[in-house]
Amino acid sequence: MNLKDRMMRVLVCGALLSPAWTVMGATAPAVAPAKSVPAAAQPAAANASSADTPPPAEAPAPPVPAADAPPAELKTLDQEVQGLKKDVVDLNKDLFVLQEELLFPANTQVALYISMDVGTFFALDSVTVKIDNKEVKNYLYTAREADALLKGGVQQIYLGNLKVGKHELVAFFTGKGSAERDYKRGASINFDKGVGAKYLELKITDRVPKHQPEFLIKDWE
Amino acid sequence: MLSAAISTASHAAGPSILGKDAPDFVLRGLDGRNLRLSEFRGQVVLVNFWTRSDGDSRLQMPALDRINITYQRAGLVVLGVSVDDDLRRSKEFATAMGVSYPILFDTGSQIGKDYFLQKMPMTILVDRAGVVRYSAVGFRRGDERVYLDKIRELLRE
Questions:
Q1: Residue B35 in contact with partner chain A when CB distance is under 8 A
Q2: What phi, psi does A197 have (nearest 5°)?
């Protein structure tokens, strides 16, 4: 089922389940059911009943309010509601993916990720990213977020659009080095943005021989 | 009369953040730590936006300090956010006040826009689900009783 069909189904089911439709069989006001039509409407209903219309006693069974509906019908209604809920969740997911595709289409999309395996020589505090000399991201890390990176997490730090062609990315890493000293380093990469999404990774690693952290920018081919 | 006072205080804030999800922010604190509002999800958070030049802010901070000391163990988090342009002086002021809760510094303008900051100080209460449930502008002696009633109500939820 495509997106449009799914949206139509959601709208129709929502209309069907609205309060105006809770009395089942409410489409037949011309027939004078004994219970569900108020007294003031009965004369009008009686007038509307012509010789061609069977008398109320022989009329089709009056519409039964939902509260008195047999359990089987309630079960069907419940299944409809559950199906509707699932459709809403699926629709929400599709809309999110669609939104991302519209805002960051693959042919201009550039995504930047950051990973860290350092623990000894550098405690990350913030990262600033510039593309073509324009600051696009400045991210402050809380202790919890830095910890998540140390545990192996990879964070999508930036998602944006770039035209096809040559570009330069510069990243500045600020934090605490050994002995709690302030530490700021940069790394840069010149890359070609072609047709298709571009993924780059900022890697912070320990360089044990030199007792220094190393900052790299990798291209995910 | 109490609820009227609350609603008056809330309406004085102009366009309102009340009832909406608290916009997330991450700021550097006086102690050098970065704190993100959403990391306190599950706790009741009192966020106080202030400037050092505002007399009400100076009056309010000791009251908030007492609230923090009393209710911290019950799960309340108090955050002070300075929206001063002069970072150095703001830090000096915060150090001099010596409160027990984190003071964060915002030198950009995004938080001001997100929270519709117009007049200082502004105090909001965020519930455990991250929704702003109370908002007030200004401070007079006695207003802390209003905060306490609301804090107790949110802590009981």
A1: yes
A2: -70, 150
